[in-house]
Amino acid sequence: MIMNYSVLLLEQLQYEIFDRCQIEQCSAQLHHICNIDNTKNQEGRDLDKIKLDFVFRTGYQLGRLYRYVKLAVLGSLAAALVLNTHSLLASLQRNELSERRFLQLNKCPACWGTSWCRKFLNGQLRLESWGRLRLFDFFNVKNVYFARYGEPREGSRRVVLKRLGSAQELADIDTKICRRATGRGRCDLLQALHATEFASLNGDVRLLTPDAVEGWSDLVHCPSQRLLDRLVRRYAETKDSGSFLLRNLKDSERMQLLITLAFNPEPLVLQSFPSDEGWPFAKYLGACGRMVAVNYVGEELWSYFNAPWEKRVDLAWQLMEIAEQLTNNDFEFALYLLDVSFDNFAVGPRDGKVIIVDAENVLVADKRFIRQNKPENWDVWYESKFDDCDKEACLSFSKEILCARVTVDHNYYAICQNLLSRHATWRGTSGGLLHDPPAEIAKDGRLEALLDECANPKKRYGRFQAAKELREYLAQLSNNVR
């Protein structure tokens, strides 16, 4: 990274010195760009000439240094490719997804599951193109891979593979397990796991209860028994799924469930609120070791930032519908999105449907439980505070309040502020998904007013009404352009 930065810096200096001054073209332009005053006396001209000579000489030296650095970088890359040709070819030829070590299957039950191990080990999944080269793992910080999955009579399709954390995060959880069990950073992981809280529910424990896992992750920041029963009943990494009784799981399956819940509960969100039942999440397929497979949805939402207006209106309407569905549904579970950015949504290439593809940070509040318990101010509407921070994808929220109120506008706020309105910033851009509307819509002003009120309301409880009207208005615009 330092080398790349140095090359870019030298390149920029070279461009500024030679391109901007353009000394080869004409002396008059040179004098103009470098701010030489032709009315100066001869002594001043001589001094300016000395300064220019120094600049040009320095620029020439920097240009030579730039070329040397560039050659050195290219030479290093060439040498690395030559020295690693055999390993690169081997990486392209072999299928690492059928190797137990690559899958970290040896870490189980400190892993995410084994339901898809037969498919992995039988070679039914293969990494795509550059994903086979370990040389590029340095850039794949999130440990997300694209692969082809094939059934003998069904052909192949694209899937997404996730390790659910960076290499450092995965190493950290191993270290924590060892320290809790032995006091040391390294140990026999399988033996150590049985001395941690992940094995505390082994044996004849009947239910997964709130006191055992409360606060382990966003998913169970404030779990009700009804939510935990749902997690166990829909747990896909067991052959006997369908029962909410924890004792029906094997000890290894219980530990896998708990460690997934603590480390990254995304698989449990996808299993408990599946796409097959209309929830807006990617479809969970299975796991093997520390590799989870989910259905490939399509290009990320960011790819549509400059799509035609008609397409962006439809996507915006879908996003507001997702916010409504996750907030108000017949199951009385409110799923609050705590991490909202253009990278966390994708769009289906055929049906154009918007799907959430990163569900790690989802807080689930049981509205039925809140109504029964009636905590303080439980029936007071909660309006999220606008956060005008200088970073991308900012959100302001209180998990405790999200867990204790029945009527909350968080999802509308998150979608409007981080994706749709002029306050949305991502990868150096601003203006949100609905930037640059057609002239007649911009002149009307209604869309901008609704987006502003949804992101940063001026009236008390104004966001609730603005979100409702925005959904209706986007639906109207979407129908008009179809």
Q: How would you describe this protein?
A:
The protein has 482 residues and is α+β, with helices and mostly antiparallel strands. Among the domains are: 2-83; 302-481, Transferase(Phosphotransferase), domain 1 (Orthogonal Bundle). It has 19 helices and twelve strands. The protein has helices at 2-21, 27-33, 42-83, 85-93, 100-103, 117-121, 167-182, 189-193, 210-213, 225-233, 251-263, 266-272, 309-327, 367-373, 399-402, 410-420, 439-444, 446-455, 462-481; strands at residues 125-127, 144-151, 155-162, 284-288, 291-295, 299-300, 333-337, 345-347, 354-356, 362-366, 425-426, 429-430. Strands 1-2-3-5-4 form a five-stranded antiparallel β-sheet. Strand 11 and strand 12 (429-430) form a beta hairpin. The longest helix is centred in the first third of the chain and has 42 residues, at 42-83. 33% of the residues are buried. This is Deleted in autism protein 1. InterPro entries: DIPK2A/B, FAM69_kinase_dom. It is found in: Secreted.
Overview features:
482 residues, alpha+beta, Transferase(Phosphotransferase), domain 1, five-stranded antiparallel sheet, three-stranded antiparallel sheet, 12 strands, 45% helix, disordered N terminus
Please mark out the parts with pLDDT under 50 across 5 or more consecutive residues, or reply none. 1-41
How many strands, which pairing sense, and closed or not: the largest β-sheet?
5 strands, antiparallel
Strand order of the largest sheet: 1-2-3-5-4
The number of distinct β-strands equals 12
Count of helical stretches: 19
Kindly estimate the percentage of residues that lie in beta strands according to DSSP. Answer: 5-15%
What's the architecture of the domain at 302-481 in CATH terms? Orthogonal Bundle
Mean pLDDT score: 85
* Shape descriptor: globular
Domain FAM69 protein-kinase: 259-457
Main location: secreted
Subcellular location: Secreted
Keywords: Secreted, Signal
